[in-house]
Structures are given as structure tokens and as C-alpha cells.
Design a protein that fits this description.
CBS-domain; alpha/beta; 373 residues; globular
Amino acid sequence: MNTTPADQDSPTGAVALGRGWLWPAVLVTALLTLSYLPGHDARDGLDVLASTVAALGLLALSVALPRAARSRVLGDHGPLVLFGATGPGLDRPDRPVRRRLLAIGASVGVSAVALWVSALMTASLPVERSAHAVSLILVSVNIWLLLSNLVTAPPFGGWSFLLAMIDAVGTAPHRRLVHARRLGRVGVLAVSVLLGAWAAVIGHPMLLFGALVLAWYGWIAPAMAVADDAISRFLGRRRVGDLLRPVATQFDTRDLVAEVASTLPPNGVALVFRDAGLAGAIGPRQVAHLSPEMNLLRCGQAMVPIDELSMVSATAPAVDLLPHLGRHGFVVVWAGAGFGYVEEHDLRERIVIAADMRRRVQEAESRDTSGRP
């Protein structure tokens, strides 16, 4: 279940931090404040603070400028996101391939110029001063931004370039991510091997660790992109009412949890009532977390209370389920004539089955089409 770009409601042209900005900023601040800057004659508190702010500002600028150039070429007019996800605009197959490649080239060019400028700054500053440390950080950031265009895994620039090239050769829309997964894994493994070899030559264990992490991520991330695409295709054409199952199991708040555990069907959800009406619900996740000693609890003690239940309308778009399913593992749906539910494992199984059937049908149609005279 993919994350979505943050701050979609920002006004046109606004600057947004974006989702996932906090931890990079905290890590960079801690690195600068506790170790790097004090080692470059920045021992005064005010000097450390000023250098940290300058480094963070230059880091944000290094990230923002390539993204601004890319958005300019693509014609996007949304907010400029300094950190975090910026949306799938560069990877959309309906965008002209030439424009997407130009956007990637523009961002690479901006990072290359930024690297050149920061390298000149580094060469001209005294090594013992904190400004030299800040400029070294700027050099490192821009080197990474350039190298990320070789990493063929989402959300790096190399993945966007790979998708653009796959679209350029006319790959069928339902096969583009499958091909990208295969080629992307090969590309990331190649980069990881080169990075590991370089780490061995210079004797840098942390760089070797980074190569291993990159290989692991490059193997997982393309598969997640394929799964996210299948989920998006499945949910994009449906309403919540198309996916719900009727609630066939009901209990009273005074019933034992052991009875729920023994009668609840796989991936099923039980509603719990009291005299005044619906009190809560129990799903597979709640049952799985119960120890044998807790089976003597009453349903009223183990249920998700009604004020914490995630409830949506049957007429809502199916994609509205995603942010709710992660909370308790199920969503209770009001269908007008009664209650239904959508459970996360059940939904995942249906998506997998639908995606497999769709793939088989499309492959059969492709064989029939290619076999015609």
C-alpha cells in the first residue's frame, strides 16, 4: 500500500517539506552538531548553530533545484517539495517520453553544476574552518544526487529513466513495470557490485555496508512498485461497496473471547453488540494478539470500541480504504441495509487473484493477436 505525496492541498507554487522530511533533517543536524563541525574548529555554540543552519539550507537547496528544473520541463505547477515524495508525474506513461527524458537530463545538469560550484568552494576554504565542513557536506550531497540517477529502483532518478526507456520502445502498459522490475534489479546489483569493489579497494567498511543495503533495497523496491501498481489498478475502478463482505458473526459484550476465536472464519470480522446497539468489532489481528490466558476475557474487553472503529460508506471510492486498514486490520462499512466489512488480508488475496487473472487474460490476448496473419 503505497504512500502518497504529502501536502497535495498546498497552493500552486508553494514550497512544502513533504512527507518524510523530519528524519533526514534530524540525522544531518545530529551529525553536524555532535561530530563533524566540532572537528572543524566550530566549538562555539553560536558557530555550530550557524553552520548547522547553513548546511541544512544548502542541503535543501541542492535537493530543491533539480526538482524545480524537472518540474519546469514537465510543466507541473504543484508545490515544490524539498524532502520526501514528489508524486509519480515523472513516471506516468501518458507523459511524452521525450519530455520525461529532458526533465531527467535537466535535473542531472543542475546537480552537476551544483557539484562543480561546491567543489570550487571546498578548494578555496581553509580546511580547519567550519565553512569547509559545510562545503564538504554540500559536495557529498550533490555527488549522491548525481549517483542516484544510476540507481534503477524507485524513487530514484535511474528508475524514472528506466521507465522512460521502456515506454519509448512501446512496451504494453500492463507489462512495463514487470520489465522494469527485472531490468531494475540487474542495474542496482551492478551498481552495488561496483560500489562494493570500490569500498574494498579503499578499505572503507561503511561504504561496503552501503553497497549491501543498496543491493537489498534494489531487490525489494521494484517488486513493491509492481505490487503498488496492481493495487492501484484494482482499487481505482471500484467503490467500497464492491469489496465488502457481509458480517455474519455477531457477539455480545459479555460473551467470551474464546468463543470468538473458535468460530470466527479466516479473515472474518465479528461485530460486538450491547443492549444499546453496536459496541465494537473484533478482527483477525485482535484474535491473533490474544494469549491462551486471555481467552477468558469478555468480548467487551478485547474488541475495538465503536469510537475507535474505522467506518466508511459503501459508496466511497475504494482507495479511501487504504489509510484505514492499517489501523486495526479491518474497516466496518455501512451499506444502508446493514453492516459489512473489508479485511486487509482478504483484500490482499483478492487483489493478487485479480492481478493474476488479468495478467493471464492479457497474455492470451497478446498471443492471439501476434498469431494472426
